[in-house]
């Protein structure tokens, strides 16, 4: 059975647009989704990212959480006939407030997989309060339980396999320890790329405030250099057939261009297409 990726809808958040795309529409409030992903068809079911803890915790960043009963991780998994105890691995692209808030819902015999550099970065204070105490403290508690945590050393080892057809690699963008999750699907390689990309239209298709040919726009929320951010986005566009960020719908990529957008699973039918043209500034 081929591997498939299903979107888990954890609700929405409202935030300033310039947080998503550097310098774009400062002061405008925008509502964006918060997704996680369920990988099925392999040796074990895998969840990638678990969303934010609750609506109130988003206020610590000056954002508004819009999470309802249907968005609870238990209910999202139930749509696919699974319970939290059925999940063998939880992988984290990184540990920001909207990515690792529900890990304590999973039993200790579910292994949480993190790039070790991200764990170190989360307690450094550099991007506080994007790493809230309840989430990080739970992960520290997991370190002391047998097999409850697996650390990857992606900056040293390169890619590391989780199960056949699923592996992780260093993202090189957004946070110092961010990682991408690669899934081998029947229609090509899919990359769950966390927050390396926030918004396909404004960063890549129309790449606002950018004149240079095929030059992506960086996000307004990163700890790496702008050159590193641009390079990481270009790497994604060069290497993968499908890209799945956390705050935008998945895209299909051909020749470094976004050619279509997908629905709630990958592979899956394209719900809309994007004209196959060069990137033009607006």
TrEMBL record:
All residue ranges annotated as the Metallo-beta-lactamase domain in the record: 33-247
Signal peptide from the UniProt entry: none
TM spans (from-to): none
Superkingdom to which the source organism belongs: Bacteria
CDD domains, per the entry: AHL_lactonase_MBL-fold
Pfam short name (any one): Lactamase_B
Stored Gene3D superfamilies: Ribonuclease Z/Hydroxyacylglutathione hydrolase-like
Keyword Zinc: yes
UniProt keywords, alphabetically: Hydrolase, Metal-binding, Zinc
The family this protein is said to belong to: Belongs to the metallo-beta-lactamase superfamily.
Protein name according to UniProt: N-acyl homoserine lactonase family protein
Upper lineage: Bacteria, Pseudomonadati, Pseudomonadota, Alphaproteobacteria, Rhodobacterales
